[in-house]
Amino acid sequence: MRAAVLTAYDAPPVYGEFPEPVARGEHEIVVDVLAAGLHHLTRAKANGTHYSAGGVFPLVPGVDAVVRDASGLLRYAALEDSVLGTFAERTVIDTRRSVVLPDAVDPVRIAAAMNPGMSSWVALRRRVTFREGQRVLILGATGSAGRMAIQIAKQFGAAQVFAVGRDAGRLAELPGLGADQALTFGEIAAAADVDVVLDFVWGAPAADAMLPMLTARADRSAPLNWVQIGSMAGESAPIPSTALRAARLNIVGSGIGSVSPRDFIAELPELAEAVTEGGIDVRARAVPLAGIAQAWPEKTGERLVFVP
């Protein structure tokens, strides 16, 4: 079959031949791939910077997809670590890690939205005790996952959502998605009294933002749950010890390992329904899988979705 094949961490995938998939486990089935998104997680696993990267080559990248099974059912499926990902004509899925979709859905839209949407959805559902009426700050709100996090926090009943980013043009769009206030990193103290931070940035920017936020809080003993989700600005953050002593700051992570596969899968149906019903704005662009080598390094505000 035809697939995008990765042979090393320092080279882009090449469109070529790969062995046909074979279902081996009790719950495994071979499926046709309809659409598979190019996510930050996919890139990080492919270049070896993500902690779950396996280092076995050759491999087909891709962590999830909208697929069709042999009975004709349309599914969204998330894959476990495997050398056969979703950037291929066919792949193998575990039916327990999939959710059946209505036939009327747009596969490209679902493939673009589920992975980035899941990051904030699972963080608020599974990593903190989030209550309706609480206030949320999103670091890195101008990216795909951050934009969806604004809408998801509002769907969950957030009283206020503060969107923080660097790109002034993209920040200006965020009130239209539900952000109550769009801020630069230098203005972050204006959102000091939030209850939850969803951090897609990490690195020095996140560490530098902590003290101005914490020292400006009206009540430093009020808990602030800082959820580390992404690391676009760096894998390490030089957090000052004062940040941990001078306020009631709780730092947790949300991702593969800190949330069990069972808990991730349990959230899929409701998230898929929200995306299908149009409650989450999705920017997606379909790209033929044959053009992956050219599209792979592309920088864009849209989520690229490969279509075999």
General description of the model:
The chain has eight helices and 15 strands. By secondary structure, it is α/β, with parallel strands linked by helices. Strand 4 and strand 5 form a beta hairpin. The radius of gyration is 20 Å and the shape is globular.
SS-based class: alpha/beta
Shape: globular
Mean of all residue-level pLDDT scores: 93
Count the DSSP helices: 8
Helix content: 25-40%
Unreliable stretches covering 5 or more consecutive residues: none
Residue share in β-strands: 15-25%
Radius of gyration, in Å, reads: 20 Å
Helices and strands, in order, run as: EEEHEEEEHEHEHEEHEHEHEHE
Count the E strands: 15
Give the termini distance in whole angstroms. 11 Å
Q: How is this structure best summarized?
A:
This protein has 308 residues and is an alpha/beta fold.
Task: Record the SSE blueprint.
Elements: E1 2-5, E2 14-17, E3 28-37, H1 40-47, E4 64-68, E5 74-78, E6 90-94, E7 98-101, H2 107-127, E8 135-139, H3 144-155, E9 160-164, H4 168-171, E10 181-183, E11 196-199, H5 203-215, E12 224-228, H6 241-245, E13 249-253, H7 261-276, E14 284-288, H8 292-295, E15 303-307
Parallel strand pairs: 8-9, 8-11, 9-10, 11-12, 12-13, 14-15
Antiparallel strand pairs: 1-2, 3-4, 3-6, 3-15, 4-5, 5-7
